[in-house]
Amino acid sequence: MSHHAPNIHRSRKAPQEEEDAAKLKFGEDFEDEEFLFISEVALLLEKIPDSQKNNTVYKKTEELVNTFTRFHNDESVRELRKTLMRHKLHKYELAQLANLVCEEIDEAKSLIPSLAKRSDEEIRAMLDDISALKKYQSNSKNCAYFYTSRKYIMDQTLPFKYVSSDEESRSLETVDVYVSDVKPEETGPIIKFIKKYCPREGILDHVKRIKKTSHDKGFTLTVLICSVESITFTDLIALIKNHNHNSILKPRIQQVCKYPAITRTQFDEWRKLWPINFIEDPKRELKFTLKEIENIEQYMERAIKLSIQAKLKGEIPIGCIMIDPKNNVILSESFDTRNSTKNPLSHAILNCINNVASLEKSNYLEKSNKIEIIQKQKKQTVDVVININSESESKTTYLCKGFDIFITHEPCIMCSMALVHSRIGRVFYGHSNKVSGGLGSCYKIHTHNSLNHHFKVFKGLLQHKIYDLSIDC
After folding, report:
1. What percent of the chain lies above the pLDDT cut of 90?
2. Structure pTM?
3. Which end of the chain offers a freer environment for a tag, N or C, measured as fewer CB atoms within 10 Å?
Protein backbone atom coordinates (compact mmCIF):
# COMPACT_ATOMS: atom_id res chain seq x y z
CA MET A 1 0.00 0.00 0.00
CA SER A 2 1.48 3.16 -1.09
CA HIS A 3 1.39 6.17 1.10
CA HIS A 4 1.17 9.57 -0.45
CA ALA A 5 2.90 12.40 1.26
CA PRO A 6 0.41 14.76 2.81
CA ASN A 7 -0.33 17.81 0.72
CA ILE A 8 1.03 20.56 2.92
CA HIS A 9 0.73 24.17 1.74
CA ARG A 10 3.33 26.40 3.30
CA SER A 11 2.80 30.14 3.01
CA ARG A 12 5.87 31.83 1.72
CA LYS A 13 6.77 35.40 2.56
CA ALA A 14 7.17 37.59 -0.42
CA PRO A 15 10.77 38.58 -0.87
CA GLN A 16 11.38 41.89 0.84
CA GLU A 17 12.38 44.81 -1.30
CA GLU A 18 15.99 45.80 -0.91
CA GLU A 19 16.50 48.74 1.41
CA ASP A 20 17.80 51.90 -0.23
CA ALA A 21 17.90 55.23 1.61
CA ALA A 22 18.45 57.09 -1.66
CA LYS A 23 15.04 55.84 -2.80
CA LEU A 24 13.52 56.16 0.69
CA LYS A 25 13.03 52.39 0.98
CA PHE A 26 13.63 51.12 4.51
CA GLY A 27 11.76 47.82 4.73
CA GLU A 28 8.67 46.81 6.67
CA ASP A 29 10.31 47.10 10.07
CA PHE A 30 10.70 50.86 9.67
CA GLU A 31 7.44 51.72 7.91
CA ASP A 32 5.61 52.82 11.04
CA GLU A 33 8.61 54.05 13.00
CA GLU A 34 9.55 57.66 13.66
CA PHE A 35 13.00 59.10 13.07
CA LEU A 36 14.19 61.21 15.99
CA PHE A 37 16.42 64.26 15.80
CA ILE A 38 19.63 64.05 17.80
CA SER A 39 18.40 67.17 19.59
CA GLU A 40 15.19 65.34 20.52
CA VAL A 41 17.22 62.46 21.92
CA ALA A 42 19.20 64.95 24.01
CA LEU A 43 15.98 66.32 25.49
CA LEU A 44 14.73 62.80 26.26
CA LEU A 45 17.99 61.99 28.04
CA GLU A 46 17.57 65.05 30.25
CA LYS A 47 14.24 63.68 31.50
CA ILE A 48 15.73 60.39 32.69
CA PRO A 49 15.83 60.24 36.52
CA ASP A 50 19.25 60.89 38.04
CA SER A 51 19.20 57.47 39.66
CA GLN A 52 19.32 55.86 36.20
CA LYS A 53 22.09 58.03 34.77
CA ASN A 54 25.01 56.54 36.64
CA ASN A 55 26.00 53.91 34.10
CA THR A 56 28.39 53.61 31.17
CA VAL A 57 25.73 53.31 28.46
CA TYR A 58 24.00 56.52 29.51
CA LYS A 59 27.23 58.49 29.82
CA LYS A 60 28.52 57.42 26.40
CA THR A 61 25.15 58.13 24.79
CA GLU A 62 24.95 61.54 26.44
CA GLU A 63 28.48 62.42 25.34
CA LEU A 64 27.78 61.41 21.75
CA VAL A 65 24.45 63.24 21.61
CA ASN A 66 25.81 66.44 23.15
CA THR A 67 28.62 66.44 20.60
CA PHE A 68 26.28 66.50 17.62
CA THR A 69 23.14 68.26 18.84
CA ARG A 70 22.56 71.73 17.36
CA PHE A 71 19.36 72.81 19.11
CA HIS A 72 19.29 72.98 22.86
CA ASN A 73 15.79 73.67 24.17
CA ASP A 74 12.23 72.42 23.76
CA GLU A 75 10.99 75.44 21.82
CA SER A 76 13.73 75.38 19.20
CA VAL A 77 13.40 71.63 18.62
CA ARG A 78 9.61 71.81 18.29
CA GLU A 79 9.86 74.76 15.91
CA LEU A 80 12.52 72.96 13.87
CA ARG A 81 10.30 69.92 13.32
CA LYS A 82 7.26 72.09 12.58
CA THR A 83 9.20 74.21 10.07
CA LEU A 84 10.73 71.27 8.21
CA MET A 85 7.38 69.49 8.01
CA ARG A 86 6.08 72.38 5.93
CA HIS A 87 8.45 71.27 3.17
CA LYS A 88 6.61 67.91 2.93
CA LEU A 89 9.73 65.85 3.52
CA HIS A 90 9.98 62.14 4.20
CA LYS A 91 10.53 61.54 7.92
CA TYR A 92 14.03 60.22 7.16
CA GLU A 93 14.93 63.34 5.16
CA LEU A 94 13.48 65.51 7.87
CA ALA A 95 15.64 63.88 10.56
CA GLN A 96 18.77 63.95 8.41
CA LEU A 97 18.44 67.65 7.64
CA ALA A 98 17.92 68.43 11.32
CA ASN A 99 20.90 66.32 12.40
CA LEU A 100 23.42 67.26 9.71
CA VAL A 101 22.59 71.00 9.54
CA CYS A 102 24.05 71.36 6.05
CA GLU A 103 25.00 74.80 4.78
CA GLU A 104 25.36 74.19 1.05
CA ILE A 105 22.97 72.64 -1.47
CA ASP A 106 25.58 70.24 -2.89
CA GLU A 107 26.46 69.09 0.61
CA ALA A 108 22.81 68.33 1.38
CA LYS A 109 22.36 66.40 -1.87
CA SER A 110 25.53 64.40 -1.25
CA LEU A 111 24.67 63.41 2.31
CA ILE A 112 20.94 62.94 1.65
CA PRO A 113 20.71 61.50 -1.91
CA SER A 114 16.91 61.41 -1.90
CA LEU A 115 16.90 65.22 -2.04
CA ALA A 116 18.13 65.03 -5.63
CA LYS A 117 14.51 65.05 -6.77
CA ARG A 118 14.05 68.48 -5.19
CA SER A 119 14.97 71.72 -6.94
CA ASP A 120 17.90 73.79 -5.72
CA GLU A 121 15.46 76.55 -4.73
CA GLU A 122 13.52 74.16 -2.50
CA ILE A 123 16.67 72.85 -0.83
CA ARG A 124 18.00 76.38 -0.35
CA ALA A 125 14.77 77.34 1.41
CA MET A 126 15.11 74.33 3.75
CA LEU A 127 18.71 75.15 4.61
CA ASP A 128 17.89 78.82 5.16
CA ASP A 129 15.10 77.85 7.53
CA ILE A 130 17.43 75.65 9.57
CA SER A 131 20.12 78.33 9.61
CA ALA A 132 17.67 80.99 10.77
CA LEU A 133 16.31 78.78 13.54
CA LYS A 134 19.81 77.92 14.71
CA LYS A 135 20.91 81.54 14.70
CA TYR A 136 17.90 82.97 16.45
CA GLN A 137 16.97 80.20 18.85
CA SER A 138 16.05 81.61 22.25
CA ASN A 139 17.06 80.38 25.67
CA SER A 140 13.81 81.61 27.17
CA LYS A 141 11.12 79.01 27.83
CA ASN A 142 8.41 81.66 27.87
CA CYS A 143 8.98 83.09 24.40
CA ALA A 144 9.45 81.61 20.97
CA TYR A 145 11.67 83.79 18.82
CA PHE A 146 12.13 81.58 15.80
CA TYR A 147 11.81 83.12 12.38
CA THR A 148 12.64 81.57 9.05
CA SER A 149 13.87 83.24 5.90
CA ARG A 150 10.29 83.72 4.76
CA LYS A 151 9.07 85.09 8.07
CA TYR A 152 9.83 88.28 9.89
CA ILE A 153 12.21 88.65 12.82
CA MET A 154 10.87 90.17 16.01
CA ASP A 155 12.61 93.16 17.55
CA GLN A 156 13.79 91.05 20.53
CA THR A 157 16.28 89.31 18.24
CA LEU A 158 17.36 92.27 16.11
CA PRO A 159 21.05 93.28 16.21
CA PHE A 160 20.01 96.92 16.69
CA LYS A 161 17.49 98.90 18.71
CA TYR A 162 14.64 101.05 17.44
CA VAL A 163 14.87 104.70 18.54
CA SER A 164 11.24 105.37 19.35
CA SER A 165 9.52 108.71 19.80
CA ASP A 166 8.66 109.96 23.27
CA GLU A 167 5.02 109.19 22.51
CA GLU A 168 5.84 105.60 21.56
CA SER A 169 7.92 105.01 24.70
CA ARG A 170 5.58 106.88 27.03
CA SER A 171 4.55 105.11 30.24
CA LEU A 172 0.97 105.05 31.47
CA GLU A 173 -0.32 108.41 32.69
CA THR A 174 -3.84 108.73 34.05
CA VAL A 175 -6.58 111.32 34.40
CA ASP A 176 -9.54 111.22 36.81
CA VAL A 177 -13.06 110.89 35.41
CA TYR A 178 -16.55 110.41 36.80
CA VAL A 179 -18.17 107.04 36.11
CA SER A 180 -21.31 105.23 37.20
CA ASP A 181 -22.73 101.73 36.93
CA VAL A 182 -25.95 101.51 34.90
CA LYS A 183 -28.40 98.81 33.91
CA PRO A 184 -28.41 97.71 30.25
CA GLU A 185 -31.92 99.05 29.65
CA GLU A 186 -30.91 102.44 31.04
CA THR A 187 -27.86 103.03 28.84
CA GLY A 188 -29.77 104.65 25.94
CA PRO A 189 -31.27 107.66 27.76
CA ILE A 190 -28.18 108.03 29.97
CA ILE A 191 -25.83 108.21 26.97
CA LYS A 192 -28.08 110.86 25.36
CA PHE A 193 -28.01 112.88 28.59
CA ILE A 194 -24.22 112.63 28.88
CA LYS A 195 -23.60 113.61 25.25
CA LYS A 196 -25.83 116.65 25.58
CA TYR A 197 -24.85 117.97 29.01
CA CYS A 198 -21.47 116.36 29.76
CA PRO A 199 -19.54 116.37 26.48
CA ARG A 200 -16.12 114.86 26.90
CA GLU A 201 -13.14 116.96 25.96
CA GLY A 202 -10.82 116.12 23.08
CA ILE A 203 -8.33 114.59 25.48
CA LEU A 204 -10.78 111.75 26.17
CA ASP A 205 -11.67 110.91 22.57
CA HIS A 206 -9.50 107.79 22.78
CA VAL A 207 -11.43 106.45 25.80
CA LYS A 208 -14.52 104.33 25.23
CA ARG A 209 -17.76 105.53 26.76
CA ILE A 210 -18.87 102.21 28.28
CA LYS A 211 -17.00 99.47 30.13
CA LYS A 212 -18.41 95.96 30.39
CA THR A 213 -17.26 93.83 33.32
CA SER A 214 -18.17 90.14 33.33
CA HIS A 215 -18.73 88.22 36.57
CA ASP A 216 -20.45 85.07 37.88
CA LYS A 217 -23.92 86.66 37.89
CA GLY A 218 -23.61 88.11 34.39
CA PHE A 219 -22.05 91.48 33.66
CA THR A 220 -22.01 95.09 34.80
CA LEU A 221 -22.03 98.16 32.55
CA THR A 222 -20.14 101.23 33.69
CA VAL A 223 -20.54 104.50 31.81
CA LEU A 224 -17.98 107.31 31.65
CA ILE A 225 -19.64 110.64 32.37
CA CYS A 226 -16.91 113.30 32.05
CA SER A 227 -13.51 114.35 33.40
CA VAL A 228 -13.14 115.55 36.97
CA GLU A 229 -11.50 118.75 35.69
CA SER A 230 -14.57 119.77 33.69
CA ILE A 231 -17.03 119.96 36.59
CA THR A 232 -17.04 119.72 40.37
CA PHE A 233 -18.64 116.76 42.06
CA THR A 234 -21.31 119.00 43.66
CA ASP A 235 -22.26 120.58 40.34
CA LEU A 236 -22.40 117.17 38.65
CA ILE A 237 -24.78 115.81 41.31
CA ALA A 238 -26.99 118.87 40.88
CA LEU A 239 -26.99 118.46 37.09
CA ILE A 240 -27.97 114.81 37.36
CA LYS A 241 -30.72 115.62 39.85
CA ASN A 242 -32.13 118.42 37.68
CA HIS A 243 -32.65 115.91 34.85
CA ASN A 244 -34.15 113.25 37.11
CA HIS A 245 -31.30 110.75 36.69
CA ASN A 246 -30.24 110.75 40.34
CA SER A 247 -31.85 107.34 40.88
CA ILE A 248 -29.77 105.89 38.03
CA LEU A 249 -26.40 107.66 38.09
CA LYS A 250 -24.25 107.29 41.19
CA PRO A 251 -20.99 109.01 40.18
CA ARG A 252 -17.62 107.91 41.50
CA ILE A 253 -14.07 108.73 40.44
CA GLN A 254 -12.17 106.36 38.15
CA GLN A 255 -8.75 106.66 36.53
CA VAL A 256 -8.36 106.23 32.76
CA CYS A 257 -5.31 106.60 30.51
CA LYS A 258 -4.58 110.22 29.68
CA TYR A 259 -3.10 109.75 26.21
CA PRO A 260 -4.07 107.55 23.25
CA ALA A 261 -2.05 104.37 22.79
CA ILE A 262 0.29 104.47 19.81
CA THR A 263 1.89 101.04 20.06
CA ARG A 264 0.38 97.61 20.57
CA THR A 265 2.32 97.27 23.84
CA GLN A 266 0.79 100.47 25.21
CA PHE A 267 -2.68 99.39 24.14
CA ASP A 268 -2.42 95.97 25.78
CA GLU A 269 -1.27 97.54 29.05
CA TRP A 270 -3.42 100.66 29.22
CA ARG A 271 -6.75 99.06 28.33
CA LYS A 272 -6.58 97.05 31.55
CA LEU A 273 -7.53 100.27 33.35
CA TRP A 274 -10.45 101.19 31.08
CA PRO A 275 -11.38 100.27 27.47
CA ILE A 276 -9.74 102.50 24.87
CA ASN A 277 -9.78 102.88 21.10
CA PHE A 278 -6.75 101.79 19.12
CA ILE A 279 -5.97 101.76 15.42
CA GLU A 280 -2.62 100.15 14.74
CA ASP A 281 -0.49 101.96 12.19
CA PRO A 282 1.12 99.33 9.92
CA LYS A 283 3.94 101.77 9.17
CA ARG A 284 5.05 101.57 12.80
CA GLU A 285 5.48 97.81 12.62
CA LEU A 286 9.13 96.78 12.64
CA LYS A 287 9.62 93.91 10.22
CA PHE A 288 12.89 92.55 8.91
CA THR A 289 13.60 89.30 7.11
CA LEU A 290 16.77 87.36 7.78
CA LYS A 291 18.13 88.41 4.38
CA GLU A 292 17.48 92.07 5.19
CA ILE A 293 19.34 91.70 8.49
CA GLU A 294 22.32 90.21 6.68
CA ASN A 295 22.34 93.08 4.16
CA ILE A 296 22.06 95.68 6.92
CA GLU A 297 25.05 94.22 8.76
CA GLN A 298 27.08 94.12 5.54
CA TYR A 299 26.35 97.79 4.85
CA MET A 300 27.46 98.77 8.33
CA GLU A 301 30.61 96.68 7.89
CA ARG A 302 31.31 98.80 4.81
CA ALA A 303 30.76 102.01 6.78
CA ILE A 304 33.17 100.74 9.45
CA LYS A 305 35.85 100.12 6.80
CA LEU A 306 35.39 103.71 5.62
CA SER A 307 35.88 104.95 9.19
CA ILE A 308 39.13 102.97 9.39
CA GLN A 309 40.28 104.54 6.11
CA ALA A 310 39.47 107.95 7.56
CA LYS A 311 41.56 107.28 10.67
CA LEU A 312 44.53 106.15 8.57
CA LYS A 313 44.31 109.43 6.63
CA GLY A 314 44.25 111.52 9.78
CA GLU A 315 40.52 112.21 9.59
CA ILE A 316 37.87 111.75 12.26
CA PRO A 317 36.96 108.04 11.97
CA ILE A 318 33.32 108.31 10.95
CA GLY A 319 32.13 106.34 7.91
CA CYS A 320 28.83 106.65 6.08
CA ILE A 321 27.11 105.03 3.11
CA MET A 322 23.73 105.62 1.47
CA ILE A 323 21.79 102.88 -0.29
CA ASP A 324 18.58 102.50 -2.23
CA PRO A 325 16.74 99.71 -0.34
CA LYS A 326 14.51 98.94 -3.32
CA ASN A 327 17.37 97.44 -5.32
CA ASN A 328 20.16 97.29 -2.68
CA VAL A 329 22.45 99.63 -4.63
CA ILE A 330 25.05 101.77 -2.87
CA LEU A 331 24.44 105.33 -4.06
CA SER A 332 27.11 107.16 -2.09
CA GLU A 333 29.81 106.55 0.49
CA SER A 334 32.07 108.90 2.36
CA PHE A 335 33.84 109.65 5.61
CA ASP A 336 34.42 112.75 7.69
CA THR A 337 36.88 115.20 6.07
CA ARG A 338 36.82 118.15 8.47
CA ASN A 339 40.51 117.80 9.31
CA SER A 340 41.82 117.85 5.73
CA THR A 341 39.38 120.40 4.29
CA LYS A 342 39.36 122.68 7.34
CA ASN A 343 35.65 122.95 6.62
CA PRO A 344 33.39 122.55 9.67
CA LEU A 345 30.58 121.38 7.38
CA SER A 346 32.47 118.40 5.97
CA HIS A 347 30.67 115.86 8.15
CA ALA A 348 30.37 112.32 6.81
CA ILE A 349 26.62 112.59 6.20
CA LEU A 350 26.84 115.97 4.46
CA ASN A 351 29.62 114.61 2.24
CA CYS A 352 27.40 111.63 1.43
CA ILE A 353 24.44 113.85 0.54
CA ASN A 354 26.70 116.08 -1.59
CA ASN A 355 27.84 113.01 -3.52
CA VAL A 356 24.22 112.13 -4.27
CA ALA A 357 23.56 115.73 -5.30
CA SER A 358 26.52 115.64 -7.70
CA LEU A 359 25.30 112.35 -9.13
CA GLU A 360 21.78 113.72 -9.59
CA LYS A 361 23.13 116.86 -11.24
CA SER A 362 25.26 114.81 -13.61
CA ASN A 363 22.33 112.56 -14.52
CA TYR A 364 20.07 115.56 -14.95
CA LEU A 365 22.48 117.38 -17.26
CA GLU A 366 23.03 114.23 -19.30
CA LYS A 367 19.28 113.70 -19.62
CA SER A 368 18.72 117.37 -20.48
CA ASN A 369 21.32 117.26 -23.24
CA LYS A 370 19.73 114.16 -24.73
CA ILE A 371 16.29 115.75 -24.65
CA GLU A 372 17.60 118.94 -26.25
CA ILE A 373 19.28 117.01 -29.05
CA ILE A 374 16.09 115.03 -29.72
CA GLN A 375 13.98 118.17 -29.72
CA LYS A 376 16.35 119.95 -32.11
CA GLN A 377 16.22 116.98 -34.41
CA LYS A 378 12.44 117.23 -34.39
CA LYS A 379 12.72 121.03 -34.84
CA GLN A 380 10.71 121.72 -31.71
CA THR A 381 10.79 125.09 -29.97
CA VAL A 382 13.05 125.88 -27.06
CA ASP A 383 9.98 126.34 -24.85
CA VAL A 384 9.15 122.65 -25.16
CA VAL A 385 12.67 121.72 -24.09
CA ILE A 386 12.42 123.92 -21.01
CA ASN A 387 9.07 122.42 -20.04
CA ILE A 388 10.39 118.89 -20.32
CA ASN A 389 13.43 119.77 -18.23
CA SER A 390 11.33 121.41 -15.54
CA GLU A 391 9.16 118.30 -15.27
CA SER A 392 12.26 116.17 -14.86
CA GLU A 393 13.54 118.55 -12.21
CA SER A 394 10.30 118.38 -10.23
CA LYS A 395 10.61 114.62 -9.93
CA THR A 396 13.98 114.96 -8.20
CA THR A 397 13.09 117.71 -5.71
CA TYR A 398 14.14 115.57 -2.74
CA LEU A 399 17.58 114.06 -3.16
CA CYS A 400 17.40 111.09 -0.82
CA LYS A 401 13.71 110.24 -0.63
CA GLY A 402 13.26 106.74 0.79
CA PHE A 403 16.99 105.96 0.92
CA ASP A 404 18.80 104.33 3.86
CA ILE A 405 21.82 105.78 5.67
CA PHE A 406 24.38 103.62 7.50
CA ILE A 407 26.75 105.65 9.65
CA THR A 408 29.16 104.51 12.33
CA HIS A 409 28.16 107.27 14.78
CA GLU A 410 24.91 109.03 15.61
CA PRO A 411 24.47 112.15 13.43
CA CYS A 412 24.66 115.56 15.07
CA ILE A 413 21.71 117.96 15.10
CA MET A 414 22.84 119.71 11.91
CA CYS A 415 23.22 116.44 9.99
CA SER A 416 19.92 115.16 11.39
CA MET A 417 18.12 118.20 9.98
CA ALA A 418 19.88 117.65 6.64
CA LEU A 419 18.42 114.13 6.62
CA VAL A 420 14.96 115.55 7.29
CA HIS A 421 15.24 117.98 4.37
CA SER A 422 16.60 115.23 2.11
CA ARG A 423 13.61 113.00 2.97
CA ILE A 424 15.74 110.06 4.06
CA GLY A 425 13.88 106.79 4.71
CA ARG A 426 15.82 105.07 7.52
CA VAL A 427 19.00 105.64 9.51
CA PHE A 428 21.16 102.94 11.12
CA TYR A 429 24.02 103.95 13.38
CA GLY A 430 26.40 102.24 15.78
CA HIS A 431 27.71 104.48 18.56
CA SER A 432 25.55 107.11 20.23
CA ASN A 433 26.66 110.75 20.20
CA LYS A 434 26.31 112.05 23.75
CA VAL A 435 27.67 115.48 22.77
CA SER A 436 25.19 116.56 20.10
CA GLY A 437 23.29 113.48 18.93
CA GLY A 438 20.18 114.47 17.03
CA LEU A 439 18.63 111.02 16.64
CA GLY A 440 18.22 109.71 20.15
CA SER A 441 20.89 110.94 22.56
CA CYS A 442 20.19 114.68 22.90
CA TYR A 443 17.20 115.12 20.60
CA LYS A 444 14.86 112.96 18.53
CA ILE A 445 14.59 115.17 15.49
CA HIS A 446 13.26 112.31 13.36
CA THR A 447 10.09 112.21 15.50
CA HIS A 448 9.50 115.93 16.08
CA ASN A 449 5.83 116.76 15.54
CA SER A 450 6.56 120.23 14.12
CA LEU A 451 8.53 118.79 11.18
CA ASN A 452 6.84 117.68 7.96
CA HIS A 453 8.96 114.56 7.49
CA HIS A 454 9.71 111.69 9.86
CA PHE A 455 11.83 108.58 9.44
CA LYS A 456 12.83 105.49 11.38
CA VAL A 457 16.11 105.33 13.28
CA PHE A 458 17.94 102.28 14.65
CA LYS A 459 20.98 102.38 16.92
CA GLY A 460 23.63 100.02 18.28
CA LEU A 461 24.33 98.22 14.99
CA LEU A 462 27.77 96.51 15.28
CA GLN A 463 28.62 98.99 18.02
CA HIS A 464 31.37 96.75 19.42
CA LYS A 465 33.36 97.16 16.19
CA ILE A 466 33.23 100.96 16.07
CA TYR A 467 35.50 103.64 17.55
CA ASP A 468 33.95 105.27 20.61
CA LEU A 469 34.14 109.02 19.90
CA SER A 470 33.00 111.76 22.28
CA ILE A 471 32.84 114.46 19.63
CA ASP A 472 30.40 116.26 17.38
CA CYS A 473 29.58 113.75 14.62
Report:
1. 35
2. 0.59
3. N
